[in-house]
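Form P-L/3: holo structure prediction, ligand pyridoxal-5'-phosphate.
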Amino acid sequence: MSTPPDDPGRPDGAVAPATRSPARSGPDVSFGLGFDFDRAFDRAGTGSSKWARSADGVVPMGLADMDLPGPPAVAGALEQRARHRAYGYTVCDPAGRALVARWYRERHGVVVDPAWVLLLPFGPRTAVRLLLEAVRPLGPVLFPTPEWAGFAQLCLAAGLPYEEVPLARDATGYRLPVAAFGGRRAGAVLLSSPHNPSGRVWHEAEIRALAEAAAGAGAVLVSDEVHGDLTHPGRRHPVAVAVAGPHRERTVTLNSVGKTFNASGIPSCFALVPDAALRERLVAVMAGYGLWEGGLVEQVVQQAALRHGGPWLDALLAHLAGARDRLTGLLGEAVRSAPEASYLLWVDAAALGLPPAGARAALLERCGLDASDGADFGPGGHGSLRLNYALPEPVLVTVLERLARLPRRAG
Ligand SMILES: Cc1ncc(COP(=O)(O)O)c(C=O)c1O
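OUTPUT (holo model):
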């Protein structure tokens, strides 16, 4: 078997055959821990932000991380690296870029040039902010609403003018209002793809049309795809830099092993930036904040996850799809957009008999479930709640029982 041109190799010198999941074959990296999503997973004492804010007996279903154990390979790699007490400054290992390219080829069937990859030592929120600084938008920043409660906040913090464009709808849920982005000037278009809060996977044609509209408006399209690897079985995630066609150089894709592999407490992400000049500007912006590619801990996490995390991710996606089916079966028409990715359910509060203005408090009081308030997701979020269902089986059962107490009517 020959080594693919961008294959980063492995510490043990073995080469993975090209399967959909880079980690499906190869050494035993289970470290004896297994992928058990059916048993309770106690986060007590771990400093979990979600649980620290939660009263006894309440199930926190807000913040977008998972109450599920992460890949054993990541734990093993961290443990192994921590044992060597060299914790000084690090360089960026080019193997990381090649691993990203291999991940896209094998997982998404997409060709990514390793030269496009920037391995960033901070989370996706910071990445969007610094990308905007590097893009230097000459017009307003546009994005659909509702959105993940970040884009508006980041524009406000950066002092950039922005406009929120209401999403369109069809029979199954949200659609991108592409026409509203065309025929005007803009500095940047931001997209959450797949969509947080609804879990909608945008169609390839919609993304291509949006890239075209953005280019026509003189804008760079920044596609935040941190939920892209969490696209449910049977769906395909269109990667913006791969589907933008002639507008690829004006398109950026952002992704994060933190989201995919439930390691957001170790901030990292990566960007695919085909335009070399924009890449250089981003690196210069980062340098201005004392940030550089390839921090110690995030490289360990990223490489372990991308090398060995595929089987864990496949098991996770099967678990999430099962949870999705049970929840959508129970909540029916209250679900605003059929979830096709990630672990987020976007529901119409009124359809569950909850007062649209105080829905979060009412759900907490009636069911002991703490959701995210739709109003935090921009003007398109009023009257909605976002429920995070990345839960182990016993907690999921509790949530289903509690939600069954609510009245339901057609939305
Ligand atoms: C779509 C999307 N983008 C960005 C972020 C921000 O991630 P972080 O706060 O880890 O930087 C999140 C977090 O939930 C998200 O869902």
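COMMENT: Residues 310-331 form the longest helix (22 residues).
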